[in-house]
């Protein structure tokens, strides 16, 4: 097969080659639809941030923030390290799917943890 260079990209300068009896590898397209993920895991966490409610389908080992961002949910965040507090959310339903509050959350949120608040970047799905 001819190596393509800038000069070879002129119209008609590249000849296509048809390979007969060459193996064809076909893969099923991966379904990244959040609805499919939810039916596979059946884990949905309802959260609220700045007056907006979100239903986040979650997968084991993933942070609540990463799951929400993958599903194009406009959560506020900044550092993703648990220090800035911008990703603070109120967990309305689904707390049972999350690991216990960690030290970073305790330092940043103090008593608001009792009101159901979590740092989305630190709330990991169990």
UniProtKB/TrEMBL annotation:
Keywords: 2Fe-2S, Iron, Iron-sulfur, Metal-binding. Pfam families: Fer2. PANTHER family: FERREDOXIN-2, MITOCHONDRIAL, FERREDOXIN/ADRENODOXIN. Its cofactor is [2Fe-2S] cluster. The lineage of its organism: Bacteria, Bacillati, Bacillota, Bacilli, Bacillales. It comes from Niallia endozanthoxylica. Belongs to the adrenodoxin/putidaredoxin family. GO terms for biological process: P450-containing electron transport chain. GO terms for molecular function: 2 iron, 2 sulfur cluster binding; electron transfer activity; metal ion binding. Residues 43-126 form the 2Fe-2S ferredoxin-type domain. This is 2Fe-2S iron-sulfur cluster binding domain-containing protein. InterPro entries: 2Fe-2S_ferredoxin-like_sf (IPR036010), 2Fe-2S_ferredoxin-type (IPR001041), Adrenodoxin-like (IPR001055), Beta-grasp_dom_sf (IPR012675).
């Amino acid at each position: 097969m001819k190596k393509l260079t800038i000069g070879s990209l002129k119209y008609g300068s590249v000849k296509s080659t048809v390979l007969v009896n060459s193996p064809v590898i076909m893969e099923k397209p991966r379904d990244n639809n959040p609805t499919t993920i939810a039916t596979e895991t059946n884990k949905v966490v309802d959260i609220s941030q700045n007056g907006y409610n979100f239903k986040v389908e979650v997968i084991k080992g993933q942070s609540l923030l990463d799951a929400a961002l993958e599903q194009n949910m406009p959560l506020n965040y900044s550092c993703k390290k648990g220090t800035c507090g911008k990703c603070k959310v109120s967990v309305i339903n689904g707390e049972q799917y999350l690991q216990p509050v960690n030290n970073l959350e305790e330092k940043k949120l103090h008593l608001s943890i009792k009101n159901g608040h979590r740092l989305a970047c630190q709330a990991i799905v169990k």
